[in-house]
Amino acid sequence: MYIDLPQTVPKKLFYCKIQSKHIEVGIKGNPPYLNHDLSSPVKTDSSFWTLEDEVMHVTLQKRDKGQTWASPILGQGGLDPYVADLEQKRLMLQRFQEENPGFDFSQAQFTGTCPDPRTFMGGIRND
């Protein structure tokens, strides 16, 4: 996620608190201006935030592999059906590559609807 920050506030006053199912962003000493539940759980030890120029970059690591998020924030936004299908295909190819490291799936294509990578043929292994 990319969050534009007010230029008049010193960078050291911004904070971001990432919890498994919740995110909070604000300025220290003030109520948070982003305080929302996440659409799916994240790995808090692999999720982080950085400040670059006047933009906060928030990187959230999905806890459940192979899951497509319409939006990281619960109830906000939504993926176009075409984009959601492309993401599903990308996740399925990523799963095939992880399960078969000696093979090249870079030119593989799906025809029709792509199966759900979380459940297809026994689901994703979380090694």
From TrEMBL:
Domain CS: residue ranges: 1-73
GO cellular component, one term: cytoplasm
Record GO biological process: protein folding
Molecular functions per Gene Ontology: unfolded protein binding
Domain of life: Eukaryota
One Pfam family of this chain: CS
InterPro entries: CS_dom, HSP20-like_chaperone, NudC_fam
Gene3D superfamilies linked to this entry: 2.60.40.790, Single helix bin (1.20.5.740)
Stored PANTHER family: NUCLEAR MOVEMENT PROTEIN NUDC, NUDC DOMAIN-CONTAINING PROTEIN 2
Protein name: NudC domain-containing protein 2
